[in-house]
Amino acid sequence: MASPKAPIPTQMHTSRLILRAFEDADALPFHEAIEPALPSLRKWISSTTEQNTLQTQQARIRKAQSDWAAGTRYNYLVIERETGCIAGLVGVFNVNWTNRNCTFGYWLVPSCEGKGYAAEAVRQLEAVATGEMGLDRIAIMCDVRNERSARLARKLGYVYEGTLRKEYVGPQGDLTDTLVFSKVRGEEYH
Ligand SMILES: CC(C)(COP(=O)(O)OP(=O)(O)OC[C@H]1O[C@@H](n2cnc3c(N)ncnc32)[C@H](O)[C@@H]1OP(=O)(O)O)[C@@H](O)C(=O)NCCC(=O)NCCS
After folding, report:
1. Nearest CA among 133, 108, 105 for reference residue 38
2. How confident is the model at residue 3, as a pLDDT?
3. Which pTM value belongs to this model?
4. Least crowded by CB within 10 Å, which of 55, 96, 143, 149?
């Protein structure tokens, strides 16, 4: 298996945000922060339909830590620098070191939407994916009806590649169509 070009940072700063890997002590604040985000998360992300208990969030953090150690997924909590509050989560998912590609994921708590935080966090994630990780392709995938997510991808310069039909079993249990956007080395970045 190929590996990252350089150690992957566990903490990064942008002008308004801190992005950092989960710590065990995050379970309670994360459990509280995600609650108001669940109605919109449950429209699009099947893994968020489980009950939001402290135990489920402890298990989520353990899984994030073991995936980080295995080199398959790198989740970063997004923290507002001004308040120290959890603003959301971004992640480098489905890392394929052989083919040097990944998929980005992101969400914000509702009170942190509309401030440019997602764009700011995703730009920082790109710096790691293209730098330390040395990946040559980044994909963003979202439900065809998820206008906000698609708008973010387009705003950040991701190129629409196509629509995968009946690609994902959505939170309501029905097969849904998925938009695919990407940036590739040599075209959208160097
Ligand atoms: C998808 C999601 C992360 C997008 O969040 P967002 O708030 O629209 O994106 P940003 O944080 O980048 O903010 C962009 C908005 O902030 C505005 N903004 C305000 N101040 C800004 C600033 N200082 N800098 C940049 N943008 C700013 C922008 O104009 C833009 O507004 P617009 O959408 O009306 O054009 C969010 O809607 C979400 O969490 N959705 C639910 C989960 C989800 O669907 N995740 C994706 C699954 S594929």
Report:
1. 108
2. 85
3. 0.97
4. 55
